From TrEMBL:
Keywords tagged on the record: Signal
Source organism per UniProt: Halomonas eurihalina
Protein family: Belongs to the membrane fusion protein (MFP) (TC 8.A.1) family.
Signal peptide: 1-22
Residue span(s) of domain Multidrug resistance protein MdtA-like alpha-helical hairpin: 104-172
Protein name per the record: Efflux RND transporter periplasmic adaptor subunit
GO molecular function: efflux transmembrane transporter activity
Amino acid sequence: MFRAHRPSVLVTLLFGLVLPLAGCSPETSSTTEIPTVVDSYTIQAGNGRELTHLSGRVRAAERTTLSFEISGKLESLDVDVGDHFDTDDTLATLDDERYHLVAQQRRAEAREAEASLIEKRQDYRRQSSLADKGYVSETQLDTARAGLDTAESRHASAVAAQELAERDLTQTTLSAPFAGSVSARQAEPSERVAANQTILEVISDRDGFEVETSVPETLVDALSTGSSHKVSFPALGGITAPATLTQLGTQPRSSNNYPVILALNEPPAGVRAGMTAEVELALAEPARDASVLPIPLTALVHDDRQRAHVLRIDEDDRLESVEVTVVDIGEERAKVRGDLAPGERIVARGTEFVDPGQQVSLLGQGPERYN
């Protein structure tokens, strides 16, 4: 009888062993929440100076185009793009053979007019002396006086023509007005050029560089000449240099953008005309309500009732919804009023992918996570 009940005893023992093991199943362990990475923005006080970033281009503070005042065949052009020169260096010359011949002709005409003037002056003196003695009539004296006046006019005209011809002869040489370098070359040797046709574009080394940009009409009143700003140069590794606003245009160019010129106070080594520049303009604004705070436009969230919210990141890196009132909306920023304070962080963008109460980590902080 005892042997008949042995299998039930074994089943009971096995069942007793299985129950403790079932209690150790991993399905009962808690799941760890993985924070979502978000891009954050630190709220700034709304009553200070706002910054705006614009693209600009470097140019020489002193630059000009060089040309001949006369026409002719370009005989020589001694410089090319990038070449440096000193003041009064000869940069180009015209074929001067024709101008030499014209100058000689004008000198001969001046000598001929001078000889005629001497003759007419002597004739007038004789006629005047004879008239005093009553040997000639007043009509003859008037004729002699008119001849002298004509000779004087012709002589003056011949002398002026000679001076112009000699001046044109000197204009066959194009000299450097200052020390600098060639930025563009617009003609080639043996080419026939017209008067005032651009031959070279040059920039000066003595007055440094400036940056040209343009600002929309909404920012013009927030800028003033003499104000200080910053300029960075992507081609030079992002190096930043101080700049002073020297010119603020009064006439818009296109799309109601006004030209702005900033002088580089300390141009960094390696800067060249034509380089791209990133301009950071500090906008002066009047005193405003301290409760109005600027935030990125992408930080705004609207619920089903079209009420505006932002997602604030608390000390435990959890999100909480804060209702705000939108005071003003710009192209990239909004001004809001609500239960916010400078120094607090909010989600800057991607608000549609996170929810209040969610655990987050800040972009650029903490360990990198890879999927």
